[in-house]
Amino acid sequence: MESVKSADTLERPVKLAIKDIVVGYLDKQSGHTMVAVDKVTLDIREGEFVTIVGLSGCGKSTFLNAIAGLVKHQHGEIRVNDRIVTGPGMDRAVVFQKASLLPWRKVGRNITYGLELSGMKQAAAREKASYYVNLIRLNGFEDHYPHQLSGGMQQRVNLARALACDPEVLLLDEPFAALDAITRELMQNELLQLCEKVGKTVLMVTHQIDEAVLLSDRVVIFSSRPAYVLADIRIPIPRPRKSHIKDSEEFRRLMNEIWRVIEGNANIGGGI
Length: 272
Ligand SMILES: Nc1ncnc2c1ncn2[C@@H]1O[C@H](COP(=O)(O)OP(=O)(O)O)[C@@H](O)[C@H]1O
Ligand SMILES: [Mg+2]
Hints:
Blueprint: E1 14-26, E2 33-45, E3 49-53, H1 60-68, E4 75-80, E5 83-84, E6 92-95, H2 107-117, H3 122-135, H4 151-164, E7 169-173, H5 181-198, E8 201-206, H6 209-215, E9 218-222, E10 229-234, H7 249-269
Parallel strand pairs: 3-8, 3-9, 6-7, 7-8
Antiparallel strand pairs: 1-2, 1-4, 4-5, 9-10
Helix pairs in contact: 2-3, 2-4, 3-4, 6-7
This protein binds adenosine-5'-diphosphate and magnesium ion.
């Protein structure tokens, strides 16, 4: 299948609009609110792959969870296709670090789960799921239980499940962080090819800079907590991409550029 990505994603309509959002957690003992995300504004265009990088504990997951509607923001606005986000919804699918599969359902029925919840008939759900089973090369594993699969395969099922719901926006929170280094590299390639095929709008969180550069159209760098946007860096490497671009001069230059921003902020804020 041809890549659906055009050379410049900046020409596309905005799919996910985040304006000035503030998210804090109330400490019930002290009565104080600890601000985790501080006035973040970000527009993500249709079909764009945007990654957020930042130090551990800076507020990346909080930000993603606010977009997913799992955590309430105290200020600002989140819109998907101009609809204001007030809670979780089928227009956003989230994949977390740990594959959250239902252990009593076989792979095929894990993938159809969200579709069944949305009221789709089992036969139609199965048909839809089989497209993603093929796409993510899980053929032959539909009748396995999650515990019979490796961590990498479980995370592939998780991705297929999220994609099968055909969300407007796919949210990924360090989806490969729990995997070993080799599986992680393989999964990065898998996701790269997958996204180039389906052309989804994706917002991913990672602390791996190489992963961010390989996959993204833009890398957004968060400050140490409370998170605000330090830099928004375009990754002009053409698509389709292959993992060997990691050896290129341009790739290294972009990695260095991102690293210098993170390091500079950590030195000022004592964030490490
Ligand atoms: N449910 C919660 N209740 C209270 N504090 C939280 C909660 N979740 C995260 N935090 C705090 O918010 C800050 C940001 O956390 P998080 O968003 O998980 O960071 P990251 O994903 O960048 O590692 C951290 O100080 C963390 O301890
Ligand atoms: Mg996190």
